[in-house]
Design brief:
heterodimer; A: about 140 residues; mainly alpha; elongated; B: about 350 residues; alpha/beta; 10-stranded mixed β-sheet; two-stranded antiparallel ribbon; about 15% strand; globular
Amino acid sequence: MKRSKKPLTFTAIAAGIGALSLAVEGCVYGPPPPETNVYGPPPDYTREVETLPFKPSENPDGPEVVVYGPAPDIPVDGPETDVYGPPPDYTNDGPEVGVYGPPPDETVMGTEANVYGPPPESNVDGPEEDVYGPPADLGW
Amino acid sequence: MPVDIYEAKKVYLDNKAEERARLFKEPDLIYLFFELTRSCNEKCFHCGSSCAPGLGHGPDKEAFKSVLRDVKEHFDIRKLQLCITGGEPLLYPGFADLLGYANDMGFRWGMTTNATLITKDVAKMLEDTGMGTVSVSIDGLRDTHDRQRGLKGGYDKAMQGIENLIARKAFRHIQVTTVVNHKNIGELDELYKILDAIDLDSWRVIGIEPMGRALDYPDMLLTPDDQRYLFNFIREKREQGIPVNYGCSHFLGLEYEREVRDWFFYCGAGTHTAAIRINGDITACLDIEDRPEFVQGNIAKDKFSDVWFNRFQVYRKPLSSLCEDCKKCEWEKWCAGGSRHSFDYDGCRQRVCFKDILF
């Protein structure tokens, strides 16, 4: 993977130019540059101008920590479930559960053929598509 | 983390909140999605749009071309990215003709693909039609990937597809996207080693979302411990200059905001993002639940530009206005109710909220 020539995390950027400088500069918001325009909102640009010297907080244990500190020891929503709230209403997951859960005892992929319906009548690209649905039909 | 880092982030988030308010009044289209097809040669258990083989294609290419002409007339297309998605977009009839047309008109375009169909010839076609960016799905090590995506041999084909893309040396950005769930999260380290050995531009690592087919598999959703592990994993890589990004979803709190991705949270559905579904419906983000109130028009009878400029109001107000808990939340100013695609519009609550998990 390519390495970034610029620091990627806010903390690393702040270490370079000072967190308060970053705060003063604020967020310069604009259209994304082409090279980062894959998915997601436009990146937040920082103008790397050192307008103020780095100034450590005088009160690192101050009230901000209380307000924005770690989560309470006792989770509000009880024990570890998942973060998405209650599960869906239906309870009958049927035979498909085994497909996406732990590996089945039989690891041959062909055993899952029934999940995806009957094999297509024609088979162009070989056995694996034969098992998992119609062969690719390139549209272009 | 020192308090002054948090304070600096608050300034950015405040600016982002102001920007959000401005965009509700003055939307700025940046991402236009074309859902070309719901057909796919894979059948991923987590697919947000429940795609599968043989589900059919979107509007005729001439209808999409008409949208492109309208967009070019009414928007600054230098600021706009055309995002091609599906299903597997390469299955769409007339793919090369449509995207070649877009390229000739000056549109920048990229696509999401499973890459299993990207042979050397297809890679050349993608270069010839001007593709700039591409995001390829790799969802785990070989066996996991194949099982979760329902195609034996899919992993090897996808990796070969990536190699075929890289070999062209023609694309601006080649990205791998991994959807992390409770079962494959343990493979992240090993998968990283594999992907790091490839000349990729970035790795997008996102959590499975409670939508589409994934709703059938609640045991695959990430636990709070999984979530914390995931964010720490991404941050650690980024601290080393390795371009791993969490997706665009969800407010992550002061600890992780702007550490695990290149921007502060903002759900741009309807202000930065619009989409054409396979039935021609004009909407915002394709991941948002397909409900009548979110359909703002249809390209068979409406001009996209008219719809964008004169409708879309449902997307141009804070999501938090629908949720009583959000209204009372101390983070509402920056979170604004979170991502629109994960909101429960019947229960009026956010399904994915990291409060008390990350912050």
